[in-house]
Amino acid sequence: MTTLSVCSDAEHAADVANSFKDAMRRVASSVTLITTRDADGSPHGMAASAVIPVSMDPPAILISVNRNSGLHSTLSTHGRFCVNLLAGSHHPLLGAFAQSSRRAERFVTGDWEDSSETLPFLTSAPAAVTCEVDQRIDYATHTLFIGRVTDVHLADEHLDPLVWFNGSGVGVSERCKPLQEKLAA
Q1: Which of 101, 105, 122, 180 has the most CB atoms less than 10 A away?
Q2: Which residues fall within 8 angstroms of residue 34, CB to CB, at 6 or more apart?
Q3: Which keywords appear in this protein's UniProt record, sorted alphabetically (predicted)?
Q4: If residue 127 lies in a helix (H) or strand (E), which one and from where to where?
Q5: Looking at the predicted structure, is the pLDDT value of residue 183 above 60?
Q6: Which residues contact 74 (CB under 8 A, 6 or more apart)?
Q7: CATH numbers and ranges of domains, the chain
Q8: What is the rounded CA–CA span in Å between residue 161 and residue 170?
C-alpha cells in the first residue's frame, strides 16, 4: 500500500492529486445523467457520479459540476436540473454524455420524455429526480449545486443499477450473478 502525506512541495502535491484521483476511481458509485434546458429550450446533459442526497426534509440532492463543463453555465443560468439514475441497460448512453466531442449524440437515443414543461428525463431510468437549485458553493474547479427536489419519477420495476468503478460503467447484477448462483448452490 502506498501512503502519501500532504506537504507544500509542488511535485509531491501533484503525486497526491494523482493518487487521490486513482483512489476515487476505486469507489463504486451510481452513474447518473444530469440534464437541464437552456433559455432557448434546448436540452443539455452530462454524465456524473458525484451526486449525493443531502436531506430528506426537505428533500435535497447535491451535484458537483466542473466549471469548465458545457453544462455549468446553462445550469447556473437556468437553475433547474434532473438527476437520471441509470440502469445497466443505459450503458450505451454514457459515451455521448461523458465526452464533449460527442455532444450532438446526446438525447438522440434513449427513451427521453421531453416537453416544454419538463426537463428531459429517461422514462426507463430507475429514478429521475427533478430539482431547483437552492444553493451553490464554488470550490476549486467545481461548483456544488444543492437542489431542492420538486418531482420524482420512478420506474415500475426494480432495475439493475449501473455503477461507475475504476473508470468504467458496470451493471451491478452482471458482477453479482456468479456470486448469487454460488451462494444458492
Answers
A1: 122
A2: 45, 46, 47, 48, 51, 63, 65, 71, 75, 81, 82, 83, 84
A3: Oxidoreductase
A4: strand 127-139
A5: no
A6: 36, 37, 38, 44
A7: 27-184 (2.30.110.10)
A8: 8
State residue 153's pLDDT score: 93
- CB 90, CB 30: distance < 8 Å: no
Cis status of the peptide bond prior to 126, with omega within 30 of 0: no
Question: CA 21, CA 1: separation in Å to the nearest integer?
Answer: 16
Establish how many alpha carbons lie within 13 A of residue 44's alpha carbon, considering only the half-sphere containing its beta carbon: 20
Q: At 48, is the secondary structure helix, strand, or coil?
A: strand
pLDDT at 2: 56
Residue 152, beta-bridge partner list: 129
- For the chain, the maximum distance between any two Cα atoms, rounded to a whole number of angstroms, is 57
Q: Which residues of 39-59 are buried (b: 16+ CB within 10 A; e: fewer)?
A: eeeebbbbbbbbbeebeeeee
Q: Closest Cα partner for 171 from 31, 33, 27, 52?
A: 31
pTM: 0.81
Residue entry with cell 420506474? 155
The one-letter amino acid code at 172 reads V
